[in-house]
Design goal:
Blueprint: H1 8-24, E1 29-33, H2 38-49, H3 69-72, E2 78-85, H4 91-98, E3 105-106, H5 115-134, E4 139-142, H6 150-156, E5 161-162, E6 168-169, E7 177-184, H7 203-207, E8 213-215, E9 218-219, H8 225-231, E10 247-249, H9 253-256, H10 283-287, H11 291-297, H12 307-320, H13 326-334, H14 341-355
Parallel strand pairs: 3-10
Antiparallel strand pairs: 1-2, 2-7, 4-7, 5-6, 8-9
Helix pairs in contact: 1-5, 12-14
Keywords: 4Fe-4S, Cobalamin, Cobalt, Cytoplasm, Iron, Iron-sulfur, Metal-binding, Oxidoreductase, Queuosine biosynthesis, tRNA processing
Active site: 144
GO molecular function, one term: epoxyqueuosine reductase activity
Length: 366
């Protein structure tokens, strides 16, 4: 194990070096917290008691390991929390896409390479740096890979505050960033949390397309577009389908409207740049992907986890929310014989919805 660091100045100096190494590795900020998540544990249990987790049973699993770090990783005394910006384009472009019913909107975090591996590799390098400095020590790195209350931990570590939409907000950088953690047996001095600066703002509550933010700091996942398009395995509730618009994977509305995101910075990470034109593809283009194409073009992407059937399910709904063009109706009709009952059902719903509209004349190509 590591040589004990007992002098306060030694620990403080180590924390400063950890933060410096983090910046060198591409993290925008590093913070340190203790392991007391009592308040977050109460909030989690209240959320679960209301059934807001829907089919996400993993949020209720693992007993108290999610809110008591030492139960998940024995010996944990401190947590190193890191954030990394991912915004690939100015928000004005995202807003334009949402206004175009023929465009496919994919949550900005999923446009590039899957962040899990990138962040975990960087966290491992940070742990290696620490070990070079003090010798072997006990630690475990996490990036959405275990029951970890990452936002509550990051808030305690001073990386920002949890906003009314339940995302972490940084006063100087907005909320377009990923989080990762290193649980460690080092007794590091903690950073001070920052104060909440949401004030009386209700922008995120008011903009939510499905009104999933049922109150400040209370998100009913069962209504959330991200849950419906990513986590939900079966049919999307019929009453919610028209509210999804052209959002086919996740939703960024609450971030796009947040006034603090005027300070957000574009990511310098090449891996977070859009791949396979997902930032400008049309619904019809993506609906025509075969399963082989889907697997090929989502390799190394967070999108692959939903599989081809849910991909088609989501796009069928989006097409049904668009204009009643001949091309859209033809594409949907072609999926009425799909091997997946779920795809057939959503394509049928979309066709019926478009049939209730007047057919939009299509401009000839020149």
């Amino acid at each position: 194990m590591h040589t004990p660091l007992t002098q306060a100045e030694d620990l403080n100096a180590l924390v400063q070096r950890i933060k410096h190494w983090g910046e060198e590795l591409g993290f925008q900020q590093i913070g340190i917290s203790d392991t007391d998540l009592t308040a977050a544990e109460r909030h989690l249990h209240d959320w679960l008691d209301k059934g807001f987790n829907g089919e996400m049973q993993y949020m209720a699993a693992h007993g108290l390991k999610r809110s008591r770090p030492a139960l998940l990783q024995e010996g944990t005394r401190s947590i190193i929390s890191a954030r990394m910006d991912y915004l690939p384009e100015p928000s004005a472009i995202s807003k334009q896409l949402l206004d175009d019913p023929a465009a496919a909107f994919v949550s900005r975090y999923a446009l590039g390479r899957d962040y899990h591996k990138l962040l975990r590799n960087r966290l491992q390098k940070l742990a290696d740096k620490i070990a070079e400095e003090i010798g072997p020590f006990g630690y475990r790195a996490f990036v959405d890979s275990a029951p970890v209350l990452e936002k509550a931990i990051a808030e305690k570590a001073g990386l920002g505050w949890i906003g009314k939409h339940s995302n972490l907000i940084n006063r100087r950088s907005g909320s377009w960033f990923f989080l990762g953690e290193i649980y460690t047996d080092l007794a590091l001095p903690s950073d001070q949390p920052v104060s909440n600066h949401c004030g009386q703002c209700r922008a995120c509550l008011d903009i939510c397309p499905t009104q999933a933010i049922v109150g400040p700091y209370q998100v009913d996942a069962r209504r959330c577009v991200s849950y419906l398009t990513i986590e939900l395995h079966g049919s999307i509730p019929v009453a919610l389908r028209p509210l999804l618009g052209n959002r086919i994977y996740g939703c960024d509305d609450c971030q796009l409207v947040c006034p603090w995101n005027r300070f957000a910075k574009l990511s310098a990470e090449s891996d977070f740049k859009p791949r396979h034109r997902l930032d400008q593809a049309t619904l019809l283009e993506l609906f025509n992907w075969t399963e082989t194409e889907f697997l090929q073009k989502t390799e190394g992407s967070a999108i692959r986890r939903i599989g081809h059937q849910r991909w088609l399910r989501n796009i069928a709904v989006a097409l049904g929310n668009g204009k009643a063009t001949d091309a859209a109706k033809t594409a949907l009709a072609g999926r009425l014989s799909d091997e997946s009952e779920m795809v057939r059902e959503h394509a049928q719903w979309a066709l019926q919805k478009l049939d209730s509209l007047h057919i939009e004349p299509e401009l000839p190509t020149i």
